[in-house]
Design brief:
single chain; mainly alpha; 3 helices
Length: 101
């Protein structure tokens, strides 16, 4: 084996996910996507309501709701991380990325 192949093999990683872990990840990802869509809806509708003076009050409330939804996003990630940690019994490292939902 030449040095290039050895170097490539040393950098490659094998990831092993159980069926249950994949299901948990998919559920939390779906929950996160739904949350993000709701955030977008609250802010878009709230922004439109600001164009009409009598509806500014309701637009403000939609902005508050959207802000609360933004706080829910990291809570979803934290709960998912705890759930996966318990599934693995606290051992092993879970694969997380900076762009993770």
């Amino acid at each position: 084996m030449n040095d290039a192949n050895r170097d490539r093999q040393s950098r490659s990683k094998t990831l092993e996910f159980g069926d249950e872990e994949l299901i948990i990840r998919q559920r939390y990802e779906t929950l996160s996507i739904v949350n993000d869509v709701l955030i977008g809806i609250w802010f878009v509708v709230g922004s439109v309501l600001f164009f009409f003076e009598p509806l500014v009050y309701y637009g403000t409330w939609l902005f508050v709701i959207g802000s609360v939804e933004m706080l829910i996003r990291p809570v979803i990630r934290l709960i998912r991380r705890i759930h996966l940690k318990r599934l693995k019994g606290g051992s092993g490292s879970s694969v997380e990325t900076s762009h993770d939902f």
